Amino acid sequence: MKKSTWIIGLSAAILVLLGVAFKVHHWPGASIIILIGSASLSVYGLLLYMEKKLLADTLVKKIVNICTTVALFIIPLSFLFKVQPWPGASIGLHVSHVLILLMIPLLIIHAVKEKEARKKLNFQNEAILFIALVAFSVFVWQTRISKQVLDSFILQDISVKKEIIYQKTKADDLFNTLESAVKSSGRAQSYLTKATDIRLKTDSLICYINELGNKMLSYWQEENPSMDSLMKFSEKENTYVSPLIMIIEGKGEILKSKLNAYTEAMDAVTNSRGKHMIELFFNTQDPQRKDTLETPRTWVTENFQHLPLIAVLINMNDMISHIRMLEAETMLYIQAIAAIEINSVPAEKKDKNNK
What we know:
Layout: H1 3-24, H2 30-53, H3 59-83, H4 89-113, H5 123-143, H6 147-185, H7 189-217, H8 241-248, H9 251-267, H10 272-281, H11 299-304, H12 309-343, H13 347-354
């Protein structure tokens, strides 16, 4: 094996290990180190194949060379996709596991049958491959989320859904009371118009959020996907569908603009408590960087990247809960000021009573 090829492989393995250490400890620069190390490891696999191709004089050796090359190419790529995270990481992981199982016995057969020392597998190559596989396995283990932890999110989701139902019931009752009072008195029609407009805007925004959630669920062809039934959802740990839809397809920026438009409209008609809710729950500003080395973050990446899908879906339900809460508070305020107008005595009647 050429010395340059060996140096590339060893350097790539060291970078991958170093990148894993940075990623586990959440140090800045981890993604860049893993990117360079994984790409270098893939290049190393191709170079190794070209060098060993000339020495392959039997079918077994050719199969070993092909499997080793494919493994050294796909494993780093799937590792990189898992870190970023990019679509297709899960497929790459499954293929990598199959390649590892196939490659190990083939390497043993090759080593046992080889008689010429110069053609035996280079132990340095095996060491480099072993280091890469260990680093890959350590990372997968460190980023794995247990089923118990994922299922515990469901308890939070149940609580959020109860809050949504309560706030919606409250807002509906307030709207119905206002509607009845306006119809019976024939006054304060403008407040009923405002309440109707609020109701339409709220339902429209919530409908859009539910559509996004159902689109994420439908990636696995779930039967009748719904944000209301996350208990039986099997891909709770998935981390690439949310960035795919919200970041790559740009749905996150659309949601952000819709939230801003909604809060701007509500701020014009709500009371001081409603304005305080907007400040607390509807802040869509990008987070500030703690230092210059930190990767720039946005509101979209903060809410939809590097998170298990179950957490993203529950956060979206939490958004719906806050929207319903703001709607109910604003309905209460509009009903109160409408009641004052409905119950107030007209000036003409006052003058007549005084006479």
